[in-house]
Structure formats: structure tokens, C-alpha cells
């Protein structure tokens, strides 16, 4: 038997209902704040992600599904949505629109990661991006909107961490300072941290052994090295979050796997998720549009994993779609089948949810199926082409004639 590829999954009807619910909530929360929907293609020029996400990131180094378009051009299934949205902003001259341009999406993304619970190779994100505004209100508003969406989805055990990265130059200086600190304490570091010292000194903050942790407690913190205007921006974001009553932790060691961030950085995680605890995160990316060939345009946004929201959110039972009318056949002949077919079609055109028996069941089987579906009425097409109507709640049946079936249901009158 052929199975779905590793790390992918099918969305079956019950699950599709939960996703539709999430999509409706996102539309409500983000639409109310002026965000318009955008969808970009499933694949882009590989260069977009190499330049946008960053050559040195795990995503670009190891996780992209890249292929040749047959004409020698390299394409990649999108691993994330921010670079594509910025590409679209530049391509459609959106800088000419009133700023900021506020966009949201709910789309599938692709990363060649080792699959586990909450981590897939094709997954969905709901995301929001605001381009063309640099004030701290944009950052704070985006964080509040994500908090509202997660709350609307009843995501349990939430924790919000925030930090600021400042500018790339600040970061480069800081990295040198941190590496020097690690070097001068090399003998106290775990072999693991020592081996990665030059590749990723920030990782040392995640170490669990006591000796390395002690070295890290004495280590310089990026938050203490921010340029004055970046520090001011960050404290304004925090004040707005405080004013909104949103609880957060300052985490100077917060790192995210994308290179485009400047200034504000944030991440929501959930205890309900286990190892892959990141529900959604984002930050400011004031240089990305320019890096992709546009004018200098500040940007800020986030993305949250749809599957992770659904795993960590309340598992409300999904109510099946209501069925107003089930059309049954007293006898299976082609004349009755045509009448039944037409009746179901007319009912749907009149705005009713109507189903037809498509499985060749006996009349008894059809009534049982109508009951299973929770149908309000069953029309039974008789041998003479006329119809009777059965009210499934009261059990009453009336020989009211074919023409009266739809008007009776529309009136909602009991038989
Ligand atoms: P990200 O943190 O890489 O950020 O992904 C955002 C969310 O997508 C994660 O928190 C997680 O819930 C979900 N996610 C990521 N990878 C997987 C996976 N393999 N399987 C299931 N879920 C996954 C971004 O993608 C940035 N574009 C966010 C952003 C928008 N920053 C600014 N604007």
C-alpha cells in the first residue's frame, strides 16, 4: 500500500472543521485590527530564502526542499512566510499604499526536519506581518493579537518570552564579546559547548551542566549592550504590554532560527506540547525588505503553528453539519431516482442542506441513515412519483405531495 510521505498527514473532515474554526478566529481577530488576507505561491526562487532567511541558518542549510524547475532555475518549497510576503510587498509596489500594509495568511509550509509530535515536514502556519511602521505600538499590537488568537483557541499552559536583538552591528560586537568570555573560561565549559563555541556561542545559554551555567551567569547579556534608541524602543514595547496586562518574561537568551530579526523578538510556548513547545513567535525585521531589493521598509510580524495550536488548544467536539432534508426512495427505479435527485437539488437551491441516498439502501436502511445524520425531515419518494414527508423529531408522516415538501420545511412547520 502506498502511504503518505514521512512527516506529512491527511486532514480528515473532523480535523478540517477545527482548522476552519481557527481560520475564522484568525480572520475575526486580525480583520478587526485591519489585516487583509494574502496568499503567496507554495514555492519561490531559492534565492529568496537564502537571502531572506539567511545562508547560515539551519532552515537554509538543512531543511529546504529544493528542486530544479526543468530550465535550470532553482526553486524551493516555502519554509516560512515572511520573506515571501516581503517579496510580494516589493513586487506589487505596496510601498505606494497607505502605510503600514497589514497582511495575514494561513498556508502550508515545508521543512525537511525529523518528524515527531508537533513537528512535520508539511505543516500550516497562521501568520501576520505589518510592513512600513517602525513604532513600538506595532510590535506590541502584534503580540497582543497573537495572544488574543491563542486565547480564542483556548491554548493551555501559555508562556510568553520577549527580548530585543538590537541591530546586526550591535549583535556582531556582542558575539565577539561573548566568545571572548567563553574562551577565557574554556576549561569550565562542557565539551559540547566548547565544540560549538565558534559556530554558535549563544547556544551556551541553553546548557544544563552546572559549571557551564555558572560561566553563563557571569556572561555579558545582549540586552545590556543595546544602542540607546533600540533600548528605548524595547522599553516602550514593554510598557505597552504592561498596560495591556499581558504577562511576559524577559529572556535575554531567546534565540530564533531566522537571521532577519532586528530589535523585538518574542515567542509563545505551551506546556501542553512537550519537546516542540513553540506555539508561535516572531519579531521585527527592519532590514529584510531592503535586503530583498526594495526600499528600506521596517517590518514586524509573527507566525504560529496550526497543528500546535490545535494540539495545545481545547478539543471542542465538532458539531456535524445539520441536515434539513434526506431524500429517500420507496422503490428503486429510474423514474423515482430522477424525482429524488431533482428534489434534493431544488432543496439545496432553496438554501436547505439536503442529501440523497447514494448507497442503494433499502427504505429501512435509508431511514436509519437519515437518523444517523440527524436529518430533520425525510422525504420519501413514492412509486407514483409523489412524495410524503416524515418529521424525524415527532415521527409523524404526512402525504402532502411533492410540491409541498420544500415550502413546508422552509416554513419550519411541524407536520
Ligand atoms: P518559526 O518560529 O520558524 O517562525 O515558525 C513559527 C511557528 O511555526 C513555530 O512556532 C511552530 O509553531 C510552527 N512550526 C515551525 N516549524 C514547524 C514544523 N516543522 N512542524 C510544525 N510546526 C512548525 C517563522 O516561520 C517566522 N516566519 C515567523 C515570523 C513572521 N517572524 C516575523 N514574521
Description:
Helix 1 packs antiparallel against helix 5 and helix 5 packs parallel to helix 9. A hairpin with a 5-residue loop joins strand 14 and strand 15. The protein is 36% helix and 20% strand. By secondary structure, the protein is of the alpha+beta class. The protein folds into 2 domains: 241 residues, Bira Bifunctional Protein, Domain 2 (BirA Bifunctional Protein, domain 2, 2-Layer Sandwich); 87 residues, Anticodon-binding domain (Rossmann fold, 3-Layer(aba) Sandwich). The mean pLDDT is 94. The chain contains 14 helices and 16 strands. It is elongated and about 95 Å long. The strands form 3 sheets. It has an 8-stranded mixed beta sheet with strand order 1-5-6-11-10-9-7-8, with helices on both faces. A 5-stranded mixed beta sheet has the order 13-12-14-15-16, with helices on both faces. The chain has a 3-stranded antiparallel beta sheet with strand order 2-4-3. Histidyl-adenosine monophosphate binds next to strand 6, strand 10, strand 11 and helix 11.
Which labels suit this protein?
415 residues, alpha+beta, BirA Bifunctional Protein, domain 2, Rossmann fold, 8-stranded mixed beta sheet, 20% strand
Topology:
Elements (H helix, E strand, L loop, with lengths): L12 H19 L4 E2 L5 E3 H7 L5 H5 L3 E3 L5 E4 L4 H10 L9 E10 L11 E10 L4 H17 L5 E7 L3 H17 L6 H5 L14 H8 L10 H16 L5 E2 L11 E9 L7 E7 L3 H4 L7 E7 H7 L12 E5 L4 H16 L4 E3 L6 H11 L3 E5 L5 E5 L5 E2 L6 H7 L4
Parallel strand pairs: 1-5, 7-8, 12-13, 12-14
Antiparallel strand pairs: 2-4, 3-4, 5-6, 6-11, 7-9, 9-10, 10-11, 14-15, 15-16
Helix pairs in contact: 1-5, 5-9
The chain binds histidyl-adenosine monophosphate (HAM).
